[in-house]
Amino acid sequence: MAGSTGPVLVMGAITLVNASVVHDRPVDWRIPIATGLTAGLLALLEKGAPQAAVGLAWLALMTSVLVPVIPGVPTPAESLINYWQSGGTRTTR
After folding, report:
1. What is the distance, to the nearest Å, from the Cα of residue 75 to the centroid of all Cα atoms in its chain?
2. Distance between CA 30 and CA 92 in Å, rounded?
3. How far, in Å, CA of 13 to CA of 60, rounded?
């Protein structure tokens, strides 16, 4: 497995769980498809520029946690903060 694959798979899993499980949205199948394609493309890029591919994967992971990627769904960081502030009870917007 390429060094960039782990962060990309985590990025996809966090995005999917945040939208589908935490905020009760239907599963958006574009997320797993885009995650697989991104993992494959970065693994290819890693053959020629390994540090760039791994750095880009980590940057994408941090971006997906901090920047809203799905309109109307709070970021995973916002969801975690809301959960923490509510005392551990699940709240949705």
Report:
1. 10
2. 23
3. 13
Burial track 76-93 (b if 16+ CB lie within 10 A, e otherwise): bbebeebeeeeeeeeeee
Question: Can you give the pTM of this predicted structure?
Answer: 0.85
pLDDT tens by residue, the chain, 93 residues: 789 999 999 999 999 999 999 888 999 999 999 999 999 999 999 999 999 999 999 999 999 999 998 888 899 999 889 888 888 776 555
Of 87, 84, 67, the residue nearest 76 (C-alpha)? 67
CA–chain centroid gap for 15, Å, is 4
> Hunting for tokens 């960081």 — which residue is that?
77
